[in-house]
Design brief:
Length: 282
Amino acid sequence: MARPSTYSLVACDLEHGEWGVAVQSKFLAVGAAVPSAEAEVGALATQALANLRYGPDGIALLREGASAEEVVRRLTEADDGRDDRQLGVVDRNGQAATYTGSFCLDWAGGVTGEGYAAQGNILVSEETVTALAKTFEASAGRPLAERLLQALAAAQLAGGDRRGQQSAALLIVRKDGGYMGTSDVLVDLRVDDHETPIEELKRIYELHDLLFGETPKEEWLEVDEQLAAELRERLDGLGYEGKPLPEAFEAWADTENLEDRVDGIDRLDPVALAELRTRSSY
């Protein structure tokens, strides 16, 4: 039976109400197995000889108000295969717990800190998990997605897992933080099979951030007469002539999957404007 050599970081950002998991493994489609999270409830990673029931069962316990340590205890006590399991949990309050069974292959272990649990198995050394923790701690104040990705990259540079790389994933939840506010899934990205999955995951996240990221409203630009004229000319050049400017801009944004970055035409998200300028002549 295959054992995914895996390292993961389960973490939260209580200020912004986000919980997430980042993971890399020498295992096909690790994102389909390891991470689980629910907004305002918590997150966990199940790995090594993973018990995939830990995901839904652990989230159910967190939803009931169980602490991270209690979730680890209850899941492992009920599991005859606990010695082969590895688990990291962060609860709704930011408390963290990690577990490594005695039969997990070396190097295997984990650490916890404020708002995070880092763990790995079949690693080159303990330095991989140390890099996860130190990098996460050092990036306080940055968006959770960026912190998780930076930690994955640092862990790989510190040695990573002994069998190499294959897949990686990033899952982050926030209440109503998903597409157009209709989902709690803020980020759910997976690289299922790639020579450098962390680099590919970072590339895909940059695309995700372009389309669905958030620019603070105070950084949006006022649309004065000069900018309105530029928008009109650029949109006309892209085939949106004849439509009122607000309708034309919204139609262009919808076509380019940038609708999350549009809120009328009086003020513009600078990211959306930059994309329009890139894709049109003036």
